[in-house]
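A reminder from the course coordinator: this example appears on the midterm review sheet, so study it carefully.

Given structure:
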């Protein structure tokens, strides 16, 4: 089977740079449980149906039905792995007689040329599932690896790297899982698990003739579910006193410049101390790039949300080699 040209990051990565500590991986069993649902099987079946359709006509033409084979899945560049847990599920759906032996674990570092899994069983079934298996693994490992690059850049500052809702439709739970594999945080899964008061909400209230003033903030505090985080987005430093009136869990600084992020952190600290209220977490967001993330971490924010780790991560090169 021919080798594909490897996709690589701008700088060379050593596997020793890609280790994800046990502390960062403590969440993985619980998060993986979220994927142990009918949605996972449904997603896999849809991907297989899309690729195989009515059948792999080339393999049927040249490969006997009763011929068994063994193949190994090899990674072509250093990365942080994510999506390995899907491999046994993919081939089980295709053919329960296919055996998958995982040689690595999700969230672990892999070196270029390293084997990550061995697959054995009916050749037709293995060849039919190859592309779907590789696509999942390449995409999710790319997200995990880019996330880990961001996580490394902000060390030793106590800052969390968060994913956003800028994900591929239908793949959010997998992509958020990959972010966690890279040492980041999944953040909110959707519109249902955390409150987030954004610009469009403010504009909608204005068009309805309502004001989001301190009285509205008080009413909202009384009505909302206190067990769920409440995030308020601000576009300027002058909005911070208004945002604090909601007693938020998080103040989100949207597209702030570095000097304004520093000022905002100082302002939040000062106002909370003066009013003797619990300080919310401060989160920076908006077009965050790898080359700039360390400077943002140095401003004193608690969290940095990065859409690029899910919507712009390059894929990692894997290949299935028949042995």
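Designed residues:
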């Amino acid at each position: 089977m021919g080798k594909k040209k490897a996709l690589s990051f701008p700088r060379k990565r050593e596997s020793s740079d890609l280790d994800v500590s046990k502390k960062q991986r403590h969440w993985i069993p619980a998060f993986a449980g979220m994927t142990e649902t009918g949605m996972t099987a449904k997603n896999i079946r849809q991907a297989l149906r899309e690729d195989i359709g009515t059948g792999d006509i080339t393999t049927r033409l040249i490969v006997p039905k009763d011929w068994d084979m063994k193949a190994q899945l090899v990674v072509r560049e250093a990365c942080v792995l994510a999506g390995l847990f899907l491999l046994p599920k993919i081939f089980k759906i295709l053919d329960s007689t296919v055996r998958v032996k995982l040689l690595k674990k999700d969230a672990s570092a892999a070196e270029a040329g390293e084997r990550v899994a061995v697959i054995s069983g009916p050749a037709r079934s293995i060849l039919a599932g190859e592309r779907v298996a590789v696509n999942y693994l390449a995409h999710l490992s790319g997200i995990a690896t880019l996330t880990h690059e961001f996580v490394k850049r902000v060390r030793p500052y106590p800052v969390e790297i968060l994913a956003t809702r800028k994900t591929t439709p239908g793949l959010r739970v997998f992509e958020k899982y990959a972010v966690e594999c890279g040492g980041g945080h999944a953040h909110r899964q959707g519109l249902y698990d955390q409150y987030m008061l954004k610009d469009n909400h403010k504009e909608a209230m204005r068009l309805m003739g309502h004001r989001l003033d301190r009285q509205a903030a008080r009413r909202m505090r009384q009505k909302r579910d206190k067990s769920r985080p409440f995030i308020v987005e601000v576009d300027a430093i002058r909005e911070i006193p208004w945002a604090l009136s909601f007693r938020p869990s998080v103040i989100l600084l949207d597209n702030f410049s570095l000097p304004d992020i520093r000022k905002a952190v100082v302002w939040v600290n000062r106002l909370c101390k003066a009013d003797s209220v619990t300080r919310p977490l401060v989160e920076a967001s908006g077009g965050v790039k790898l080359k700039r993330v360390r400077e943002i971490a140095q401003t004193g924010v608690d969290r940095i949300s990065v859409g690029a780790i899910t919507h712009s991560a390059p894929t990692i090169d894997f290949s299935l080699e028949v042995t």
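The chain has a mean pLDDT of 88. Residues 272 and 279 are 6 Å apart (CA to CA).
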